């Protein structure tokens, strides 16, 4: 695991305890609890509207929980959000990129905002460009990039400050099969030294990349374990079978308000 930041050594990189989030009278998350160990790559699965993005937004301090607590890298997301933000990298579902900026200028800007100090800043930008395969487009405007390269820029901004924990919300959505494999490889490589939690609807991706799977359904955690353990637990054959077992019949429209 990376020790770039002066983090308090934590047994777990992520501890989520009884997390609940309501939007008006709608319960999007209902007492969700799980832990992630340092260096683990965890796949976060669930049908549309299950509560994956909501969980990720809380873990990255973009949104407050209604009840429950979450700690990232040993710090509370509510009480110690500045410490959490230093140690977490986040690729949101829709990456907010500045279209008119050149890739290099954008990464320089993010590095400054993230406190990557000179003289190491340029070297760090080069490292991130190398790692995310952006060298061919560094002098292009972001508006000119394909979806796959935009995702790479999104990943680059998420790792530029050497976070201990990386949270990626559907990093491969909308990519072609080649791009999916390339981004997956980048995630695997990054995961060798970071804790990663990422959501996806592409089940093969989970099997290829993740150490562990967390499944969320209607705002509740319904499964947590390795693929083998989850298959054995329900007598399923493959992750698709596991997923259907825990989430079959769910639609976002079927969700009810708090009773
Ligand atoms: N700002 C909001 N106001 C009201 N309801 C919301 C808001 N954000 C999310 N929701 C609802 O909360 C539920 C969980 O949404 P969330 O985006 O966390 O799901 P998800 O698992 O990430 O779904 P997807 O796979 O479609 O991205 C959904 O029913 C969604 O409509």
UniProtKB/TrEMBL annotation:
Keywords, ordered alphabetically: ATP-binding, Nucleotide-binding, Transport
Q: Which SMART domains match?
A: AAA (SM00382)
> GO molecular function: any one?
ATP hydrolysis activity
Q: Which Pfam families match?
A: ABC_tran
Q: Which domain of life is it from?
A: Bacteria
Instruction: Name all ABC transporter domain ranges.
Output: 14-243
* PROSITE patterns named among the record's database cross-references: ABC_TRANSPORTER_2 (PS50893)
Entry keyword annotation includes Ion transport: no
Q: Does the keyword Heme apply?
A: no
SUPFAM superfamilies linked: P-loop containing nucleoside triphosphate hydrolases (SSF52540)
Q: Which Gene3D superfamilies match?
A: P-loop containing nucleotide triphosphate hydrolases
Signal sequence, renumbered to the chain: none
Stated family = Belongs to the ABC transporter superfamily.
**What is the official name of this protein in its record?**
ATP-binding cassette domain-containing protein
Look up and give the organism this protein is from.
Persicimonas caeni
Lineage per the UniProt record? Bacteria, Deltaproteobacteria, Bradymonadales, Bradymonadaceae, Persicimonas
